[in-house]
């Protein structure tokens, strides 16, 4: 580890101690909240640094003891064990130092829509939405359906959900893009394999303080709900469509019987889309807008392929192929998501060197 990095770690440890002193009664109010937040961000790094330095000290002591004939055998075993541990401890420190995406700890809005492929795309969209719901349950997250528009064949026209829990966005943000499915549709009489696509967008949930929305910039239309939805359909004007005039973003919501609830849900989605647009503008490495995030839905654009005849799922960004499509469609995304996170970390580490 370089001298400059060691000096940086020293400063972090000193700052953590300084913040603890401040929080012991030296500050209050807004200053207390600010110091608490800063300490919470530094403590994970501090933990890794302390573990690394303790191991380095123990390694030096074990190396010295190797010269003692009476202690050599014991010291040798400890020396080699610590030597093997150090790279992982060093990597943990470097990963902890990587700049965090401020949205990583947030909940998220999931949007899924069929793209190319007609009815088959809608059917797969419904299956993929259900798979994400199962994954959310396995993580202990709360999955609330905001909108679910079903096709006549039981597929999806579009679906949106709010997923609440710890670090939801950090795990799901790499799911945004075009998902391609290859299989024989239930409606196919000749047994031919069809290729269809579905677009997925995962947006970090935004708070009111993140995005200032001027009511004068909104056009709000109310209308009668249509399609599956219960007895209230076509009886009351409960559905809401909100258009954000400066950006042209349109959000329509009709899932609830209450116009007020539909409006609240639509505003939540609008806020998330505007927040993501702000993040995209501020960070040139991200997509320029939501269209860049999900693509056009064309078959040639894809981040992942689900090939049912071969039983495989391939993520094209990291060349990862898993031959367990049945488990993935039951919501077992961990192996794919962990690999994507690891690849992202490796790329960001490489960019720092």
Task: Describe the protein's topology.
Elements: H1 3-26, H2 29-65, H3 72-97, E1 108-114, H4 119-138, E2 142-150, E3 156-164, H5 168-172, E4 177-183, E5 194-204, E6 218-223, E7 239-244, E8 249-253, H6 259-282, H7 290-294, E9 304-307, E10 312-315, E11 320-322, H8 325-328, H9 334-352
Parallel strand pairs: 4-9
Antiparallel strand pairs: 1-3, 1-5, 2-3, 4-5, 6-7, 7-8, 9-10, 10-11
Helix pairs in contact: 1-2, 2-3
**SSE pattern, N- to C-terminal:** HHHEHEEHEEEEEHHEEEHH
Q: Uncertain regions: pLDDT < 50 for 5+ in a row?
A: 229-234, 285-297
The averaged pLDDT comes out at: 85
The residue fraction in helices comes out at 40-55%
In words, what does this structure look like?
The protein is of the alpha+beta class and 353 residues long. The strands form two sheets. Strands 2-3-1-5-4-9-10-11 form an eight-stranded mixed sheet. Strands 6-7-8 form a three-stranded antiparallel sheet, with helices on one face. It starts with a helix and ends with a helix. A hairpin with a 4-residue loop joins strand 9 (304-307) and strand 10. Helix 1 crosses helix 2 and helix 2 runs antiparallel to helix 3. It has helices spanning 3-26, 29-65, 72-97, 119-138, 168-172, 259-282, 290-294, 325-328, 334-352, and strands at residues 108-114, 142-150, 156-164, 177-183, 194-204, 218-223, 239-244, 249-253, 304-307, 312-315, 320-322.
